[in-house]
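Quick question, first post here. What does this chain look like in 3D?
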Amino acid sequence: MPSSNGSTSAPAGAPALSDRLPGASGQADVGAAVPGAPMSGALDRLNRLAPPWDEIALTQLLGDVATDFGFSHAAVLSVPSTDDGGTATRLLLSNWSESFGQAYEQLGLHRSKLVVGALKTDPMPFVWDIDTLYGADEPDPSPAARMLLEAEYLAGAFFPVHGLTAFNGALSFAGRSCALPAEAIRELHLFAFALFGMLAAARFEENRRNNPLSVRERDCLKLAMLGKTSSEIGIILSLSEYTISQYLTAAQRKLDASNRTHAVALAAQLGYLS
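> Answer (accepted):
Ran it through. Tokens below.
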């Protein structure tokens, strides 16, 4: 609700990113009522999408929900886990144009320390605005800020999805403004969890058919998922600890994972260990 100085504040459970930045003040219009905003539109759309799902249908679903809530840009991102040294998000699904996606990555926006740090460490949704997050109101805005201004990528919200394994992700919405009441924040967070599950299911069978891991690499990752060390895996498989480490390193490289824990999480998420 508006404060005495006329600014707006985020609803419970959806703090502005500026709340985490000392001295910053967020400008996103969050918590205000949205005339005609569907309080169950996202979940209704989920229910109407019958399985089996595919990425084309899920991309359409994502774009439709974004439009329902007044956003022009929507994306599903993977996020480095807290025990992962990674510093960048990775695009999994979006309604972005090819040129916007290329510019977003070339300008390093996928490596924003503020965004990646918040998504890695906090499971709750948060909102942002372009001035607070990207300094668009500075006398000489950065090339990234100018690109976002031109694309009308001015405010938005992130909805983190933290899995029980090392997998983390987030659903991102952005547009000219971000005016979401508390009910919409909660609904879109539920939508984010469901969408990640549907995307995993859509990719599961295809990934299993195109599994890049060898039998031994899968065996090692399955045992690592159970908490076994390289030495223990070697005893179980009657192989040397060095050989086990080589298998795990090869799997990590094939999955573009930053460490063993990340490789296990990715392999499980992609259906490679089934």
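The chain is about 45% helix and 10% strand.
Residues 53 and 202 are 5 Å apart (CA to CA).
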